[in-house]
Amino acid sequence: MEYRHITSPSPRKFKVVASARKVLFTIFWDIEGVVHMEFLEQGQSANSERYISTPRALKLRLKRVRRDKDSILQHNNVRPHTSRQTQDALRQLERKTLPHPAYSPDLAPSDYYLFPQLKKYLKGRGESYRRCLQMVPWTII
């Protein structure tokens, strides 16, 4: 039950549409385009164990696609990226990482370049975001 003034309008009920659902994915990209991308299944969370498996797959992909030209991994400061377990795994894989200062918007290239390009591509598409993202022509980057 909601308490409100008699003259106040009733609250609006919003219909949840397919586009309102989140699509979680991990993406690695560079100046040449997308190198590797993995989707999380519905209900799966992005934790350290999940994140550790990604650089292993990335290392194999880099060897095949980019000949692993001394790549440096830059990621933000969320817990799965900064946990001791993740840091140990990255050291074992001999992955160099670029430190990401807290609250530094100028070091988030995905926020300024990748996501706006994706939004532009997905705008007006009636299909599910997950299906659209799997079909994105990654040359848009």
UniProtKB/TrEMBL annotation:
It comes from the Eukaryota. InterPro entries: RNaseH_sf, Transposase-MT_Hybrid, Transposase_1. One of its GO terms (molecular function) is nucleic acid binding. PANTHER family: MARINER MOS1 TRANSPOSASE-LIKE PROTEIN. This is Histone-lysine N-methyltransferase SETMAR.
